[in-house]
Amino acid sequence: MASLIFGVRLDELETVDQLRSVTTGFLDGDRTCRIFTPNPEILLRARSDAAYADVLRSADLALPDGTGVTLVQTLRDGRTVRRWPGVEIAAFLVRLAAERGETVAFVGGAPDVAERAAARWRTLPGLKVVVAGAGVEVDEDGSARHAEREDEMTDAIRSAAPAIVLVGLGAPKQERWITRHADAFPSVRVMIGVGGAFDMWAGSRRRAPRAFRTLGLEWLWRLALEPRRLPRIIRATVAFPVLAVFDRTDE
Predict the structure, then answer these.
(1) E-state strands within the chain
(2) How confident is the model at residue 30 (pLDDT cuts 50, 70, 90)?
(3) Residue 251 has pLDDT above 70, yes or no
(4) φ and ψ at 90, to 5 degrees?
(5) Can you say whether the dihedral through the CA atoms of 218, 246, 13, 186 is positive or negative?
(6) pTM of the full structure
(7) Distance from C-alpha of 143 to C-alpha of 155, rounded to nearest angstrom
(8) How far apart are CA 77 and CA 61, in angstroms?
(9) How many whole angstroms separate alpha carbon 15 and alpha carbon 86?
(10) Burial level of 228, CB count in 10 A (0-12/13-18/19+)?
(11) Is 14 a residue whose pLDDT tops 80?
(12) Could you give the CA distance from residue 187 to residue 248 in angstroms, rounded to a whole number?
C-alpha cells in the first residue's frame, strides 16, 4: 500500500520480512534502485520545492521516517502505519549485504566519522565496507564543489564495485546526489540516503534510548542534546502535522 503527503508517495511495509523481500528483489535485479526515507522536514521542503518533490517521487521505495509522518498517515487513512527510521533500514541493508557476501560503500560524512562507522561493520563475516567521498563538500544540488573530488569519489565507488551505497550527506543533498549518480555505477543495485547514520555508528552522536523511540519522542531527545534545533523541531512537530492533515493537493 502507499499514501501521498504533499504529492510525495510513501510506501507502507508492515514487517522486516516484507522489507527483506523488497530489498532482496532490488539486489537480484538488473538496475540501481533508490530508497528514500522522508521525514517531516524532508516533506516540508518538498512542499515548497517542486524539483525536490520530483526527486523524492523517483524513489523505488519511500518509507516514512519520523513520528509526525506516521501520525499524519494514521489520522488521514484511519490505520496504523509503521515508521521506518533510516538508520535502521541502513543497518538492515548492511547485514543483508554481509549475508550475501556483498560490498557496501559509505559516501559522505567527516573522514574520521565515516571510517569509524565502517570499522564497526567490518567485523561482520562476508562483508566488505569501503569509504568514498568522506569530507567532500557537496552543494544543495548534489554535486561536489570541486570536480576533481567528484571524480575521485566516483572512481573509488566504481573500483570497489559495491552492491549497496549508503549516502550520508543529509537531506536534500543526499537524495539529489543519488539522483545524479543513479546510473553511474554498474555494480550498484541499491542506493539509500542515510542522514546521520554514520555519526550514530561512529559514536559521535547518541541515538535516543529505546523508550524515547517507542513513545515517538526522539525529537525531544534531539532537542535536549541540541537546543539550537528548536526551530526545526517546531516545524516538524507543529507546522508539518497541521499542514499535512489539511493538505488537499493529494486528493
Answers:
(1) 2-5, 8-11, 33-36, 61-62, 103-108, 128-132, 164-168, 190-193
(2) very high
(3) no
(4) -60, -45
(5) negative
(6) 0.91
(7) 15
(8) 20
(9) 15
(10) exposed
(11) yes
(12) 41
